[in-house]
Design goal:
mainly alpha; 3 helices; elongated
Length: about 140
């Protein structure tokens, strides 16, 4: 068709600066949220621990594991997610892959928060089910 048309491969990396900027912005938001979630959870979990000690209720094993490991497990997990999301920005080449990995880290972080909240409420749910069975 057009024989004079050629693609310049040297200009390809600078072709989408807005998409790259959005990718770094999404990475920054996810990394900042991961760095903020660990201290928030570390401050909230001892409140539940003290409450359950006062109630003298038998805790399910997920809650016991969480109370035993939250101080080192949650910060290492969230720092690992933040480091990974920044590292992938430097190592992944395709923008689509960068966005996919950022979204996966975002969902992993907020799924973990939901899981921690569920494990914290698990003793109250078992206590409520025992009360219903007692009626």
């Amino acid at each position: 068709m057009n024989e004079n048309y050629t693609t310049n491969t040297a200009q390809r990396p600078t072709q989408f600066p807005v998409a790259r900027l959005l990718s770094w912005l999404a990475t920054g938001i996810v990394a900042a949220s991961c760095s903020l979630l660990a201290p928030i959870l570390i401050r909230a979990i001892p409140i539940y621990s003290n409450m359950f000690q006062g109630l003298e209720v038998q805790l399910p094993w997920p809650t016991r594991v969480l109370f035993a490991t939250y101080y080192w497990l949650l910060p290492s997990f969230f720092v690992g997610l933040a480091v990974f999301v920044i590292w992938k920005e430097c190592s992944a080449r395709e923008l689509r892959r960068k966005f996919q990995l950022t979204a996966r880290v975002f969902f992993a972080a907020f799924f973990t928060v939901g899981l921690v909240i569920f494990v914290l409420y698990l003793p109250m749910l078992t206590l409520a089910s025992k009360l219903v069975d007692a009626k």
